[in-house]
Structure prediction request, 161 residues.
Amino acid sequence: MKTRLLIIIGIIFSGGFVIANAYADCDINYDWPDAPCMDQGYQQHQVNKWAEYYDYKGEQFMESKRTEMNNAIKSNQLMKWMDESIQNQNAWQYYYFSGQAPNPYPYSQEWEFEPISRDSPHSKMTPHNPFWYMPYLQWIYGITITAVVIGIIVLVWRNRK
Prediction:
């Protein structure tokens, strides 16, 4: 009886973990509090909101970040540059949604959107959304944890007999 109760508690706990993490909000963007949450994929209104980042940070800042980003791209260090600061990530995000920066993520899911642009707002591009930013990975973790917990409980239960 206790074993069945432990199995039920393990399933409920693990299921709650999965659900809580799969629907978690985006992290706070300390560089730009108005940054759109893009963890569920790209929606056009969120893409368009990145145009405000340029105005928020100013032309001088954004152009200096573009220069840094282009140097990182040329030296094949874009991911390293992006990981250096939230400002670099935000600048890349702006330039990526403007069609001026490549996607450095090797595993991605395609999303269609119209890039933000002050010059040509009607050009099309196909970006990629990194898989590990999606909640699917959290579901996989949750299911794995659930399977491990159930497996341990079953092994303990069988060894008691």
Summary: Confidence is low (pLDDT under 50) at residues 119-134. Residues 136-160 form the longest helix (25 residues). Residues 1-24+135-161 form one domain.
